[in-house]
Design goal:
The structure is a single chain. The chain is 78% helix and 2% strand. With 490 residues, it is mainly alpha-helical. It folds into 2 domains: 396 residues, MFS general substrate transporter like domains (Growth Hormone, Chain: A), CATH 1.20.1250; 54 residues, no CATH class. Strands 1-2 form a two-stranded antiparallel sheet. α1 packs antiparallel against α8, α3 runs parallel beside α5 and α13 runs antiparallel to α14.
Length: 490
Amino acid sequence: MSNSKSTRGPGIVIGVLATAGIASSFTQTMVAPLIGQLPAIFNTSPANTAWIVTATLLAGAVSVPIAGRLGDLFGKRRVMLLLTLPLILGGIICALAPNVEIMVTGRALQGIGSGIVPLGIAMLRDLVPPERLSSAIATVSATLGVGGAIGLPVSAAVIEFADWRVLFWGGAAVTLLVAIAIFTLIPAGPAGAAGQRFDGLGALGLAIGLVSLILAVSKGSSWGWTSALTLGLMALAVVAFVLWGFWESRTKDPLVDLRTTVRPRVLLTNIASIFVGFGMYASMLVMPQILQLPGSTGYGLGQSVLAAGLWLAPPGLMMMFLSPVGGRLSTRRGPKFTLVLGVSILGLGYVVGVFAMGSTWGLLAAGLVINSGVALAYGAMPSIIMGAVPRSETASANGFNTLMRSLGTTIGAAVIGLVLAQMTIPLGGAAVPSEAGFRTALVIGGGVSVIAALVAALIPAAKAGDTARDDVTDRADDGAPGRELVTAGR
């Protein structure tokens, strides 16, 4: 283990990094209750205000893998502190925004802070004793869902009882406190890839590919899936990713080491992550709408935005309470077992949802089961990744895995959004998703969860000594004792 072991208790380290994760993920989702009001607030069209969400998504997708690599090169704590700056600045800009263009700019800055969670997970490998590592990883990883789950009721309450700008002032203040806690309570730790250079061309290529793909997927329904713009962006994404892969496989210090990424344990875990992200997000799109649609539809539950958020809060908190249990389970049975179990429970939650969507208590039960599965799966995936990559690539590998989850949620939003847009009924002169549409969406979420379980079951078992051998190689490359051990082992 690195000599950067924290002189603080591991509980403090885990608590600070978990709080940072919640603050970051809350910032990404707290605008959700405002979406319907944004056109009136800024006196513009819904199409224009949609960019407030899209800008955050795009900035986060580009930031996460780049931040991970920078953390490996220059120190994870340093980069994490830097990421709090756009979160704080973006919050202040949004709080003061006089028009939609400034609001989009602020939200894009806040999206850059998405890399905090994978960096926090990666730091645990350096700062937490091995016997507590699995539970710590599960706890910090679960904050990706916890922050989003508590964001809806908290944001709804602020918007209902105060000015919406208070929401962004409060988010900036919380992030500032988190930055102070990181600076004072978290040790610096080593830069595990010292001596390597940042792959600027690789970062540019990945950014072009990701922006093109996410724009096409997220805007395809409004632009038209067969429109020239959507198809052109899809083609640009394919070309960019092919050229990026060619460059990354040949450059000396790649942004993402594709040789590590194609290892079966890493590759299959990342593929499973896409399906898990899809499976998690499907419920987040369906349940709030069912709760808020009027009872006159025959299936809507007539809840206010605030009440709907409160019904969805317990499933979010379940993720935080269950994540340490998942960590202990990973320690005893291995993270692959926990991942397969988690996505199986996720699928079961959708079965509950199909049969219990007619009541608030039924949706609460479905949400509790779904988020229990997500908690186990989200905690297990980083453990598998970190057990299969060298220490010098911990942050970048976790960042790439987080990116795969985000791609899953983006694809899930597009697919479920398309289903709900096609299966509608008239209500007060407008079209709203039908009961059949919601049931179809829940069935799709369950089916995707089954696919995730099958992919997870194919992940090969870890080979004893792989990670240790990689870590020795890292230390040898840095000039530390251990090169002789590597040579002898070959």
